[in-house]
Amino acid sequence: MRVVLGVSGGIAAYKAASLLRLFTEHGHDVTVVPTAAALEFVGAPTWSALSGKPVATDVWTSVHEVPHVRIGQGADLVVVAPATADLLAKAAHGLADDLLTTTLLTARCPVAFAPAMHTEMWEHPATQANVATLRSRGAHVIDPAVGRLTGKDTGAGRLPEPEQLYAACLEILGGAVPGVGGSTSPVRDLAGRRVVVSAGGTREPLDPVRYLGNRSSGKQGWAIARSAAERGAEVTLVAANVSLPAPEGVHVVAVETTLELKSAVEEAAAGSDVVVMAAAPADFRPASVSESKIKKSSDPAAGLRVELVENPDIVRGLVEQRAAQGSDRPIVVSFAAETGDAQGSVMDHARAKFARKGSDVQVVNEVGRDLTFGQDETTVHVLRRGSDAVVTVGPASKDVVADALWDTVSAMLG
């Protein structure tokens, strides 16, 4: 496939480099057409190195090849990511003052825009009118995500993740997305379903200052919740100590300890279709919590002894509760974050945990310092009860893992 990747001058231009890699790694021929402003954020050598082609911003470079006509005419898809408010305005009004805008006028293939800007700019009537104009002409405008923007701002206007943009482009070319009057959207195979997702790592207090915890960032659970919402589900996200902005359209319940997580998940699970336990609850908690800060002893050799008690197994409790009700819902998905040791490999421990918990699906990953926790990419192995098959996903982004998981669960829901 011949792709023209237009890049306009916004801070999100750095994400377009990852989108370019996705296209090229899947064998597509990509010509990058940045604006002059885009090169202020990501330089021409980067685009040339990743695409294997020279880049230009004006119509005068290689003028004998008539690039302002030839590039658009020969493309199977033109996608502009990020598309700034200025670029959307130029495209809507047919302005052609550089190589990218002239390419947009000559393209006769599907054209997609991925806007990225501050919330106020995205919501401004002028921008919304320009988007409506582009859509009325058959262009695809991918709605921006909601999340962290430049600086401390949060809201609508964030460029979707490269994997989401790549999937949207494939949908456009596959005809799964309407050509007029609508933006791209994923398959809505979870429409009408109620989903509960847990995310993050619990904290078990020792005193008012200290706690026992783990390295979980909540990124994988966040991706799972976001993917479910995009696929049409009504999503409750039980978040244990996660600082990420709430995914759009997702109800977030904040908790701290494992007992709080258990209570919130069980309450949300009533009447749900699926529960995904992506959180990392602590296996143990202190038997008692000091009401004041624990002070150092005057004798360094004395140390500190903490008695721990075992926390309840939330997944096992959900499975037992479901059995007591004589129901096959909710489908329960457990996560096994494991490390290998002298007693067995990661998969040995994961299979034993799968048998012990009784969940319907188990997602297995190896954890440790710089492995999985807090990372943007991971590798997982998906086990399904009643099957010996192991589905491996990755190395891939956590968004890709989330979609792969929902593909499995959606098939189970029928």
TrEMBL record:
The keyword S-adenosyl-L-methionine does not apply. GO terms for cellular component: phosphopantothenoylcysteine decarboxylase complex. Its EC number is 4.1.1.36, 6.3.2.5. Its cofactor is FMN; Mg(2+). It comes from Humibacillus xanthopallidus. It comes from the Bacteria. This is Coenzyme A biosynthesis bifunctional protein CoaBC. Binds 1 FMN per subunit. GO terms for biological process: coenzyme A biosynthetic process; pantothenate catabolic process. The gene is coaBC.
